Amino acid sequence: MKTIPQAPARALGSIHRDEVLPLCVVASRFGWGQKEIRRVQREGLAVCQCGRFKYTTGKAVLEFIERLMKQQAEPQTGDPQITNSERG
Q1: Which of 3, 61, 76 is nearest to 28 (CA)?
Q2: pTM surpassing 0.85?
Q3: How far is Cα 46 from Cα 40, in angstroms, rounded to an integer?
Q4: In the 3-class helix/strand/coil scheme, how is the chain assigned residue by residue?
Q5: Which of 3, 41, 85, 88 has its CA 20 to 30 A from that of 30?
Q6: What confidence tens digit (pLDDT) does each residue in 3-54 have?
Q7: Phi and psi for 49 in degrees, rounded to 5?
Q8: What distance in Å separates the CA atoms of residue 36 and residue 18, rounded to the nearest whole number?
């Protein structure tokens, strides 16, 4: 019987600005899979590799998430905008 891949289990915990975390711990806390880990690194999450593991800081993670939230809150270029005068 073929095994069905399972989503990674989410570990409970918080992320503090003054801590250094292995990237796999951050991924576990956010429920990120391997594709998402690669995507956030491409989009600018600061990481450093030491030996076999990649590490990041709580500050870098929180700033990255804040930046994503601001980008999602801003209207995207090319999206139609409805003004109050058009609403009638």
Answers
A1: 61
A2: no
A3: 9
A4: CCCCCCCCCCCCCCCCCCCEEEHHHHHHHHCCCHHHHHHHHHCCCCCEEECCEEEEEHHHHHHHHHHHHHHHHCCCCCCCCCCHHHHC
A5: 3
A6: 766 655 666 788 999 999 999 999 999 999 999 999 999 999 999 999 999 9
A7: -100, 130
A8: 24
